[in-house]
Every structure is written in structure tokens, then in C-alpha cells.
Automatic annotation (TrEMBL):
A GO MF label: transferase activity
Keywords: Transferase
Keyword Transferase recorded: yes
Species: Persicimonas caeni
SUPFAM superfamilies: UDP-Glycosyltransferase/glycogen phosphorylase (SSF53756)
Pfam families in the cross-refs: Glyco_trans_1_4, VanW
Transferase listed as a keyword: yes
Protein's UniProt name: Glycosyltransferase
Length: 607
């Protein structure tokens, strides 16, 4: 009885427009009341057999949408509000990962707190906005009311039965409380609960600037109009609710004890960009150095400058805060060096290490990070974990998307079914789907690769390739022309097309890598391995690849004024000295090579 009286008075206190300055005594009394009603609710929920944690299921994506609620996530730019807004968005991001994909059986009750659990720092929640004693104060888990508002709004639109709902005591500008479609929550005694006579799926996702709740269910709606919930007694007196603009970061009442408590939070800087990087590309390095702001930071595997490691030789001249992942990178290097150069085991291991690196980088994404610039190999894992939701995303695109890569390899394998390498590995379908979703979400797709840029004409930022400094090249002695194959002998690099194109031609073929298509692959051709001085003797460099993502060897040859013949899949469109040929077209490749050999003979005769 006593606890019931306390509970009612606590709720009335929450609904009272209290403009008086809060005191330590009033806050202590309020905390005692909250503890009392919390204890009571925990006991009640423990004994309630209808409360359960529902599971996520992969199916139901094709069920029709019966209700949708969309609300902006950035609603207040008042002084001192940004930090709390950013914290709110982070809390929504954490909660969305817990709710997205839940399937609630027909007749079962959905409980907000049974599903979310207590919002604590350990679980990833941060300070957001909470209305307390008439003020908007920083509170861990604050801002989750935007989620409960959206859930309530969608449930009403879908005609679900509202089991429990509480209105806010005050209206935060921009919230659904302005439309009287709100539902406040406070762990654990102020909950939102509803149910449906149909099994339904809940989707909770953030876009760059909005929070989206969708409810999916089979069949026709049970209710023709949204169910009218009988108001609680305390709701009857809460029809006229005042707006509140006061918060502990902008009221500047230094005599208030909360001012000093939250002063440090108010001094934090604003929005920032995180650059999450893996292998070094000079094109991306220059782009970042030109676009980074002083408050931004970057994560890279190793300090490339200090260790002189060319794979991680990021300069990042415009970034002052650069963080490293030394231990994980060392383990990755040791493991991958022990793997075979080709095959499914190696490819799967590389994906596993990409996932591990993405997980470590994600720990650096604090609420102030509103934009992420990320290497493509990390993208699907960050997307699957929900870390990119509610943020602007730019992708440093280093390869064809997995789905497009599979398409190209499948096409090549159909042409050359005897190849042991063209069909040796395909990434999991879930990874391809996650990457496609993330690329569709991204703002910009940044790449120097012309073939990749053509796949995304509206989003791509096409950078110029970085040409290495040309090395002096002495004239070779007259003799048989030398063609350099700028890759290992594997099907995806166009080995079969080159073999066919060179059949019967009187040339020397130099191979810039291993022979992985089997012994005797080049039977009938004069072949040898390239040495370190391969550029000196090359009359042409050839790469008719089905897939080529980083054609550095071709760029080196072009910089040395050596003619290059490459497929369009190499992405060198517009580079001087490069002649492009269609992918998989051995006849076109042969024609280009024969024309070049005739020029060489004519030049030799004239000399």
C-alpha cells in the first residue's frame, strides 16, 4: 500500500511543471521514490509469466508492412544540446541492434524493457537526454524515449492492443509528444507493452538523419482503426504539457549542483570523422590528407612511417590523432604468411581477420563520430554489427563488390571450366548482402578504379591513379620481343586469354609470379620468370584480367613509357600508355599485341 502511494506520487511529481531550481535533497527524495517503485516492478515482472525475451528470426522479410513510424534523429541544435543529441543517437543505435529482426508470436506481449534490458555503460549506452524534475539532464540511456515513441506510434497505426503506455510529463521540441503520440519509458517501472493477434516482425533501423520503425505481419489488419487506449489516472491530468528547453549544458546556473556535475560533458568538442583504414593506397592517402579536419582521427593497423612498412605506409598529413592496432596486426601477419598463396582457406582466413579488425576499430566510434570513412574490406562487418547506422558513410572502394566479383568469376569459370582456381572460393551470401546494403546506404564511394566507378555513377568519386616515379631504363639489345604477364598464372588474371592470344607468335613471355593453374600450362610458349629488372627488357606489359583491383605493376610500366595492354576490369581507363581490351576477348588482345609487334619491327628496321 505504501509503495503504491509512493509510485503514484512519483508519477505526479514527474508530471508537475516544476520550474524551481533542483536541490540535492529533492534529488535524493526522488531517487528514493524511484528505488521503491523499481523494486516493486522487478518483483512484479519476475512473477509475470507473460513477459519473455523474443528471438530474432531470418524469415519474415517479405511480410507486408502493416505500420511504419519515421522520426528525425537530429531535432535540436540549441547551444549545449548537441552533446545530448549525439548521445541519444548512440543509444538508439545500441537499442536498434537489440530490436531489429525480432519476431513476436501472436498473442505474446512485447515489453520494451524485457527486450532492451537495463541501459548501462558496460552495455554500450551513453549519456543522452532525460527529463528529470523539470529539466533535461544527461543520463545514461537517455533518449530511448524516441524509440518508445516510434514503437507506440507504429503499434497504434497497426491496430495492436496497447497493454501499457505512459505519456511524457513535458514535451521536448521535435518529439512525438507534440502530437500526443508519445510513450515515455524509464527502467524498469515505466514500460511500453503491446501485443497483436497476429505474429509480427519488428524492424528498427537508423538512416543518416531518421529513425525508422517498421512492423511486418501476415494477413489483414485485425483492427480497422488504431486502438484507443484507456488512459491511466495520471494521464488524465497530463493533457496540457509544457515544452522544456532547459538542460544542464545550456542553463548556466552555476549555483545548481548539477551544473558542476555535467560541466565536463559540456566542454566536449562537436562532430568528428573517423577514418578506419587497412592497406595503404596512395590515392586514398592524398584524399584524406586534403579532406580531414583537426578534430578527426584515424585507425590504421601499424604506424607505417615509423616501421617503414609499405603495406601500411599511411602518411595522413591532415590527421593529428592516429591510432594503431599493433597486436592484432602482428597476429594477422603471422597467420596469413603461413597460408597457401591461393585457395579457399586463405580467402576465408582473410575475411576472418577483416572481421576482427573491424570489431577492434568499432570500439573507437564514440557518439561524436557522425561520419565514417572506411576501407571496403571492413565495411560489411561494421554494417552487420550496426555501427554505421545513423552516421554518414564514405567508402574507400578497393575491389568489386562481392556480388559483382562472384558474377565475374562465375562467368570466367563457365568459359574455362578446367581451371582449378576460378571456382575455388565464394564468400558467404550474407556477407555479399551486407556489403550491398552498406554500399547502397553510403554517401560516397571513392576509388581510382574506373571499372568500379562505372558501377556507381551517382555516388562514385573517381580519383586519379598515383603514378610512381619513372625509373631510368637502358635500351635492351635487339632480339625477340618480350611480353611481360603482370601477374601470377591464375585464371582470374586472364592467363587463359593470354595463352590463346600468344599462340604461334614469336615472342618471349615473362611471368611476374607463380604458376598456379597447373604444370605445363604454358607448354608451347617460351616462358621464364621475371627478375627484379623486368622493366628493362619489357617491350609490352599485358594483363587481360577478369578481376584486377590494384594494378600497380601496370602503373609502373605506364610511368616508364612501356606500352600496356589491359582488360577494362583493370580499371585504368584514361591512363596514358594503356590500351584497354574487352574482358575475356582473346582475339581482341591478340590483335592489339600483333599491331604492337608490327610497330616494333618497323621501328627496328628504320633504326
Amino acid at each position: 500500500m505504501l509503495i503504491g502511494i509512493i509510485a503514484r506520487r512519483t508519477q505526479v511529481a514527474r508530471n508537475t511543471s516544476n520550474q524551481q531550481e533542483p536541490t540535492r535533497l529533492a534529488s535524493a527524495v526522488h531517487a528514493f521514490k524511484v528505488a521503491a517503485v523499481t523494486a516493486r516492478r522487478l518483483v512484479q515482472d519476475t512473477l509475470d509469466p507473460t513477459l519473455t525475451r523474443h528471438q530474432k528470426l531470418a524469415h519474415a522479410d517479405t511480410w507486408p508492412v502493416v505500420a511504419e513510424s519515421i522520426s528525425p534523429i537530429w531535432t535540436n541544435e540549441a547551444p549545449g544540446e548537441w552533446e545530448l543529441e549525439a548521445g541519444k543517437v548512440e543509444n538508439l543505435r545500441q537499442a536498434a541492434r537489440l530490436l531489429d529482426g525480432l519476431v513476436i508470436p501472436a498473442g505474446d506481449v512485447f515489453s520494451f524493457w524485457a527486450q532492451i534490458g537495463r541501459p548501462t555503460r558496460r552495455r554500450g549506452f551513453v549519456e543522452g537526454r532525460e527529463i528529470l524534475q523539470g529539466c533535461v539532464v544527461p543520463s545514461v540511456g537517455g533518449g530511448l524515449c524516441q524509440l518508445s515513441n516510434a514503437l507506440y506510434d507504429a503499434a497504434q497505426r497497426a491496430g495492436f492492443e496497447i497493454v501499457e503506455r505512459h505519456r511524457h510529463s513535458k514535451i521536448v521540441p521535435g518529439s512525438m509528444a507534440e502530437q500526443d503520440r508519445d510513450a515515455t519509458v524509464f527502467w524498469p517501472h515505466i514500460d511500453l507493452r503491446f501485443r497483436s493477434e497476429r505474429t509480427f516482425k519488428l524492424e528498427a533501423r537508423l538512416t543518416r538523419d531518421a529513425f525508422v520503425i517498421r512492423l511486418r505481419a501476415l494477413g489483414t489488419p485485425v483492427y480497422e482503426t488504431p486502438a484507443k487506449t484507456k488512459p491511466e489516472p495520471h494521464e488524465e491530468a497530463a493533457q496540457a504539457r509544457p515544452n522544456t528547453h532547459k538542460n544542464c549544458l545550456n542553463c548556466h546556473k552555476v549555483e545548481c549542483f548539477r551544473y558542476w556535475k555535467h560541466r565536463k560533458l559540456a566542454r566536449k568538442p562537436g562532430a568528428r570523422t573517423a577514418f578506419l583504414l587497412d592497406s595503404h593506397w596512395p590515392e586514398f592517402d592524398a584524399y584524406i590528407s586534403q579532406s580531414a579536419q583537426r578534430s578527426d582521427f584515424a585507425c590504421i593497423p601499424l604506424p607505417g612511417r615509423a616501421l617503414r612498412n609499405p603495406r601500411y605506409a599511411w602518411r595522413l598529413d591532415g590527421v593529428h590523432d592516429v591510432r594503431h592496432v599493433l597486436g592484432l596486426t602482428a597476429l594477422r601477419g603471422l597467420h596469413t604468411r603461413a597460408l597457401r598463396a591461393q585457395g579457399a582457406e586463405r580467402q576465408q582466413a582473410l575475411l576472418d581477420w577483416d572481421r576482427a579488425l573491424a570489431q577492434v576499430y568499432a570500439q573507437h566510434l564514440d557518439p561524436r563520430v557522425t561520419r565514417v570513412v572506411v576501407s571496403q574490406n571492413l565495411l560489411p562487418f561494421l554494417w552487420q554489427a550496426g555501427h554505421l547506422q545513423g552516421r554518414h558513410v564514405d567508402v574507400l572502394v578497393t575491389r568489386f563488390p562481392v556480388a559483382e566479383l562472384h558474377r565475374r568469376l562465375d562467368a570466367a569459370a563457365k568459359i574455362h571450366p578446367q581451371s582449378p582456381t576460378l571456382g575455388d572460393f565464394r564468400a558467404p551470401e550474407a556477407l555479399a548482402e551486407a556489403e550491398d546494403a552498406a554500399l547502397a546506404y553510403a554517401d560516397k564511394l571513392i576509388t581510382p578504379h574506373s571499372a568500379i566507378a562505372e558501377l556507381f555513377p551517382r555516388k562514385s568519386v573517381h580519383l586519379a591513379w598515383h603514378l610512381p616515379q619513372a625509373q631510368p631504363r637502358s635500351r635492351r639489345s635487339q632480339g625477340r620481343p618480350t611480353i611481360v604477364f603482370a601477374a601470377s598464372t591464375v585464371g582470374r588474371k586472364g592467363a587463359y586469354e593470354l595463352r590463346e592470344a600468344l599462340r604461334g607468335l614469336d615472342v618471349d613471355l615473362r611471368i611476374l609470379g607463380r604458376e598456379l593453374e597447373g604444370d605445363g600450362f604454358w607448354a608451347g610458349h617460351r616462358t621464364s620468370k621475371c627478375g627484379e629488372d623486368w622493366l628493362r627488357d619489357a617491350d609490352a606489359v599485358v594483363l587481360p584480367a577478369h578481376v584486377e583491383h590494384q594494378p600497380r605493376v601496370l602503373l609502373e610500366a605506364a610511368a616508364a613509357n612501356i606500352p600496356v595492354f589491359a582488360s577494362r576490369a583493370c580499371g585504368l581507363g584514361g591512363v596514358d600508355g594503356v590500351e584497354e581490351v574487352p574482358v575475356g576477348d582473346a582475339d581482341a588482345l591478340r590483335a592489339a599485341i600483333v599491331a604492337h609487334l608490327e610497330l616494333l619491327r618497323a621501328s627496328s628496321s628504320a633504326a
